[in-house]
Each structure stands twice: as structure tokens, then as C-alpha cells.
């Protein structure tokens, strides 16, 4: 069974101070810790530990194709 995260729990996974970097998209959580583009928990101004659904679908050039990682 998949783990469920509250928004408060997700915030802990911000990629800072040795924490893993997780992002939520469409109610699914993705571990982006080992993706070089997410070094230090940020990617093009977006921060890990947050729901980035709106950003991905409205502002990202690659839309949900990136989720095939």
C-alpha cells in the first residue's frame, strides 16, 4: 500500500539539510532526490516538498511527460 502524505508531512521532504526531495503531482508523490536537476531541492525556482501540479501543467514546457522518469 502506498504511503499517504499530508501537505505538512510533504513539506519535510524539501531536499534541504540532507532530507530527501519529494514533489506531489496530481495526488501522487514522486521522489526527485537523485535527479540532478533537483539538486538542493530546487528546480527552476520550484521547491521540493510541495504540490507542483499547477506548475507542471500550466507553466512547464514538458508537462506530464517528465513523470515517465
Automatic annotation (TrEMBL):
Residues 5-68 form the Cytochrome b5 heme-binding domain. It comes from the Bacteria. InterPro entries: Cyt_B5-like_heme/steroid-bd, Cyt_B5-like_heme/steroid_sf. It holds the Pfam family Cyt-b5. SUPFAM superfamilies: Cytochrome b5-like heme/steroid binding domain (SSF55856). Coiled coil: none annotated. This is Cytochrome b5 domain-containing protein.
